[in-house]
Design brief:
disordered C terminus, Nucleotidyltransferase, domain 5, single chain, disordered N terminus, 10 strands, alpha/beta, five-stranded mixed β-sheet, 12 helices, 360 residues, binds 5'-O-[(R)-(carboxyoxy)(hydroxy)phosphoryl]adenosine, binds zinc ion, 40% helix
């Protein structure tokens, strides 16, 4: 059964467009190979993520060449698994959405080439999706998604920024990190504490046993009324503390983790709630890998409630990289008439960070 778009005719010959309903999403921008099937841009039929943590753990970070190779090995089995779990036949996929960037080019190309081949072999429309737009859409996949507009903090291993989100395809970047991303700072501090890679979840756990007030790390607010972040100074402060207190790794590991986390969480929450106030917005979302942080979730719920702001955080499975968020954004793109073509290429950086609309 064809699903007719409610959008105005946009096909080359002016015919009404067929709206894709079941979208296959593909994500391979960094160290997770992911595929998902999402219906109507809202309902997750399947979401499969193959993590490469074991490949990169011993190197203390993602090794791009190894990541690309691991994507090549995992791509076909992961897509097959996503189709099987979805309960629908491949013939009932109406469109393909794939992460176009930003990310590691070799990694992106694996997903991108697969998606192109899959779409062309089946005569399906397909579209490249901005990874950050995907993260921002991850809250739309919950049972109780926010209405537009909402302010959103996107905090992951590669990005940290605050956005004013007006639609699934339109988000205004209010400010972003000038150096390290929040997740990157977590990973680097974890390395200093001898906790391995990736470090976010480990520090989070350790922090729950430490005393956050035992060490006073300065909060890097920068201008308190602006939305830019900087985490490299905080990382250096932790490094200096560990140098001047050589026993701290043995005797104070949990306290260092707790004090570091408290500083990060204070800044992230301050900027997000300030954005809500400036934009007169009563809804605030947190997305990206760092949104899994238990300290951040707890504090944000409490602080936002005091200001009458409703908080939206995706399920943990949708905080880190996944393909369901890519399929959700792709659904809206395809519905609006945006498609990619055989010569469309990936991009490594968000070249025009002022808005995500540029990639739509
Ligand atoms: O969104 P994501 O999976 O990948 C990127 O797009 O970067 O985010 C990964 C990041 C890593 O830096 C990881 O340490 C961090 O998210 N992370 C956390 C937690 N779980 C993952 N950071 C703080 N607390 C956590 N519980
Ligand atoms: Zn991500």
């Amino acid at each position: 059964m064809p699903f007719l778009s409610t959008a105005p005719p946009g096909g080359r010959d002016g015919q009404p467009q067929i709206t894709p309903l079941n979208i296959l999403g593909i994500e391979s921008s960094c160290d997770e190979t992911a595929a998902a099937v999402v219906a109507d841009g809202r309902r997750i039929l399947s979401s499969v993520v193959a993590s490469q943590i074991e490949v990169h753990h011993r190197y203390g970070g993602v090794v791009p060449e190894l990541a690309s190779r691991a994507h090549i090995e995992a791509m076909v089995p992961v897509v097959r698994e996503a189709l099987r779990h979805s309960g629908i036949a491949a013939e009932n996929i109406q469109g393909v959405a794939v992460t176009q960037g930003p990310g590691l080019v070799g990694c992106l190309l694996v997903g991108f080439c697969f998606a192109k081949a899959f779409a062309y072999a089946r005569g399906l429309p397909w579209v490249g999706v901005d990874h950050l737009a995907g993260h921002l859409s991850s809250v739309l996949l919950s049972d109780d998604p926010p209405d537009f507009p909402y302010v959103a903090l996107l905090a992951s291993g590669g990005h940290t920024g605050v956005y004013y989100v007006q639609s699934p395809l339109q988000a205004e970047l209010l400010g972003q990190t000038r150096d390290d991303a929040a997740g990157e700072a977590y990973d680097k501090v974890a390395k200093m504490l001898g906790l391995g890679y990736p470090g976010g979840a480990v520090i989070d756990q350790l922090a729950s046993r430490g005393n956050a007030d035992s060490i006073a790390f300065t909060r890097p607010y920068l201008e308190k009324d602006r939305f830019d972040f900087s985490f490299s100074g905080l990382k250096t402060a932790v490094h200096r503390y560990l140098q001047t207190h050589p026993d701290a790794i043995q005797t104070q590991q949990a306290d260092v983790a707790a004090a570091f986390q408290a500083a990060v969480v204070d800044v992230l929450i301050h900027k997000l709630l300030h954005a809500a106030a400036i934009k007169k917005c009563s809804k605030a979302a947190v997305v990206g890998g760092v949104a899994a942080n238990t300290g951040l979730r707890r504090r944000l719920h409490a602080d936002a409630a005091r200001r009458g702001i409703q908080v939206y955080i995706p399920d943990i499975s949708l905080c880190g990289d996944n393909a369901a968020m890519i399929a959700a954004t792709g659904f809206h793109l395809l519905k609006s008439g945006s498609t990619s073509t055989i010569d469309t290429d990936v991009y490594s950086r968000n070249t025009r960070p002022e808005t995500l609309r540029t990639r739509v």
